[in-house]
Amino acid sequence: MPPARGDTRLRMAPAIEVRIMYSMSTNAGAGLAGYWARAALDVLLPASCPICQTAISGEAPLCPACFSELNALMDTPACPRCAQSVAPFGVQDGTCAQCRGLGSPLECVVRAGPYRERFALALRRFKFGGQEDLDRFFSDALIERLRARDWIGSLDAVTAVPTCWRHALTRRHYVPLVIARRVASSLRVPLEPLLRRRFGPHQLGLTRSERPQNVRGVFRIVPRTQLAGAAILLVDDVATTASTLTECARTLRRSGAAKVYGAVLARVASDAQPLADI
Predict the structure, then answer these.
(1) Which helix (H) or strand (E) holds 113?
(2) pLDDT tens, 90-110?
(3) Of the N and C termini of the chain, which has fewer Cβ atoms inside 10 Å?
(4) Cα–Cα distances in Å, from 208 out to 26, 163, 212, 238?
(5) Chain centroid to CA 187: how far?
């Protein structure tokens, strides 16, 4: 069954007004008043799929067609080390042709799905379109794939790839932190702010060759953080070249972390050109 949806009314009206209405309905008490308030809201603001805008009912976060397509995309084969999409039999000894023989401070990267088609559209709606109620769908999808890894029980902390304070001021919600919080809670592992990022140019719109240099040296460990021998799960939203994940992992390893694993909602294909919005 699809995961339960949260504040689904956010998609049908201005956010502030709807949140107030929803708060009134949920705070009206556990009795009849709260029930009728929620029922009235269902009639006045019927839920719709955040991807295709088809009307939906019940507790499903997406319409059946979108839910089916997203699950099919998430089931496409991926390299267990770098999370790139692979052809059948494209993985040998735990690596693919794109990462085989390459060194990395990351033990591996786990993805929820590939950054293409309707999965990419859904992620853009979540990240930029105000569809914040998709957080449970994406986090549950990522958690399911993380739980399949044999190292998942060895984690000491979960941390999100940080953004600088200036960029944070321009965002309603910061997706890596939203997802990291849910992942940490589900896995019952502490969520720790281990890294800081200095202000500098964003990765948006940069070419593949420009991205590694753009993040070189921009991360540092939070003062008085002790990482000796720790196993860390590092969470980001989208990995294009994985330059940001790699630089964060390198910083964590230099500060004593024994193992750093990456987790992302989506991985961009290696032959795809970086888009202006990721």
Answers:
(1) strand 109-114
(2) 999 999 999 999 999 999 999
(3) N
(4) 47, 20, 8, 14
(5) 15
